[in-house]
Amino acid sequence: MSSVLDKKPEKEDEVIDSALRPKTWSDYIGQEKIKENIRIILTAAKQRSQSPDHLLFYGNSGLGKTTLAQLVALEMEKEIRISSGPAIERAGDLAAILTNLNEGDVLFLDEIHRINNTVEEYLYPAMEDYKLNLILGKGPMARIMELKLPKFTLIGATTRPALLSAPLRSRFGAIFQLNFYKPEDIEKIVERSARLLGIRIEPDAIKIIAERSRFTPRVANRLLKRARDFAEVGGNGIITKETSEHALNFLEVDKMGLEPGDRKILLALIEKFDGGPVGLQSLSAAAMEEEDTILDIYEPYLMQMGFIERTPRGRIASRLAYEHLGIKIKNSQSQLI
Ligand code: ADP
């Protein structure tokens, strides 16, 4: 069974994602401060008839970074080109993308922390002076060709801002952190998505789906979609409190929004390391999950919920984690947490 946290959206999910993607600022629910800040930047840029500063968005997957970039392009009435750090392998790839932009366009680079060093070097003058210095040929015959680029706005997105080099980070005019959503905002998102998809859902069911969606819009939309399948197959098409609970229990998403992967990590921490402290490498080996997956997908939510604490000596399972999993805390551990 595929997890609701799968990083790569399935084909159907992509269709749903784009169908539900907010196309106006008022449809983009929550993150009010960020929206306000961005609108000031855009209004000022418009008044000066310039393209806005380069922007960096960071935060977990599914929190709305791509959507925000699309809203920026819409507001500026420009096109958006979407690519990602790992997709740009050579300077030539970057040149092809940049020279195809029109004046004022937005270039959205997802996973910008994974851009390779060579390409990154080329990005600096492109961001600063809108030019690209390409080296043609090799050895003594090599020549530098300067390409003038249209003025564009780069919007970088990352789940791991700490992995961005300082020179790259400093070239963004503004940096925004997208946080987990408030429960009431997620409820509004579920309600809006149900309306757009023509799904009938009871208010109690909206609450239940919102509660278990890790405060993340993409997860909320996926859970809604799964609950709809259950309502259509086993019920009368309406998502009731019971169908939503049944669907989420079947998907093994518990009342706190933890799914099997989260519980596997907590259990490894508690059972194999007595609750920690333990380093990421050992935890990753014991839980059989890649370190990056733990860092990007599981840990931010487990920390947000207070199940894991990060200390200088390693990760520790909190008292809450023991209680949630119904495991008794050993005496030796109780002084630590
Ligand atoms: P990210 O780029 O951070 O991974 P996306 O922008 O792709 O996230 O958002 C994933 C999905 O979640 C979008 O398709 C959209 O439907 C929904 N979504 C994200 N943010 C919001 C929001 N603030 N309001 C409503 N829906 C949102």
Automatic annotation (TrEMBL):
Residues 51-182 form the AAA+ ATPase domain. Its EC number is 3.6.4.-. ATP binds at residues 20-21, 62, 65-67, 128-130, 171, 181, 218. Residues 1-181 are annotated as: Large ATPase domain (RuvB-L). Residues 182-252 are annotated as: Small ATPAse domain (RuvB-S). DNA binds at residues 310, 315. One of its GO terms (cellular component) is cytoplasm. It is found in: Cytoplasm. Gene3D superfamilies: 1.10.8.60, P-loop containing nucleotide triphosphate hydrolases (3.40.50.300), Winged helix-like DNA-binding domain superfamily/Winged helix DNA-binding domain (1.10.10.10). GO terms for biological process: DNA recombination; DNA repair. Pfam families: AAA_lid_4, RuvB_N, WHD_RuvB. It catalyses: ATP + H2O = ADP + phosphate + H(+). Mg(2+) binds at residue 66. Residues 255-337 are annotated as: Head domain (RuvB-H). CDD domains: AAA. Keywords: ATP-binding, Cytoplasm, DNA damage, DNA recombination, DNA repair, DNA-binding, Helicase, Hydrolase, Nucleotide-binding. GO terms for molecular function: ATP binding; ATP hydrolysis activity; four-way junction DNA binding; four-way junction helicase activity. The RuvA-RuvB-RuvC complex processes Holliday junction (HJ) DNA during genetic recombination and DNA repair, while the RuvA-RuvB complex plays an important role in the rescue of blocked DNA replication forks via replication fork reversal (RFR). RuvA specifically binds to HJ cruciform DNA, conferring on it an open structure. The RuvB hexamer acts as an ATP-dependent pump, pulling dsDNA into and through the RuvAB complex. RuvB forms 2 homohexamers on either side of HJ DNA bound by 1 or 2 RuvA tetramers; 4 subunits per hexamer contact DNA at a time. Belongs to the RuvB family. Homohexamer. Forms an RuvA(8)-RuvB(12)-Holliday junction (HJ) complex. HJ DNA is sandwiched between 2 RuvA tetramers; dsDNA enters through RuvA and exits via RuvB. An RuvB hexamer assembles on each DNA strand where it exits the tetramer. Each RuvB hexamer is contacted by two RuvA subunits (via domain III) on 2 adjacent RuvB subunits; this complex drives branch migration. In the full resolvosome a probable DNA-RuvA(4)-RuvB(12)-RuvC(2) complex forms which resolves the HJ. HAMAP family: DNA_HJ_migration_RuvB. Has 3 domains, the large (RuvB-L) and small ATPase (RuvB-S) domains and the C-terminal head (RuvB-H) domain. The head domain binds DNA, while the ATPase domains jointly bind ATP, ADP or are empty depending on the state of the subunit in the translocation cycle. During a single DNA translocation step the structure of each domain remains the same, but their relative positions change. This is Holliday junction branch migration complex subunit RuvB. It comes from Candidatus Staskawiczbacteria bacterium RIFCSPLOWO2_12_FULL_37_15. The gene is ruvB.
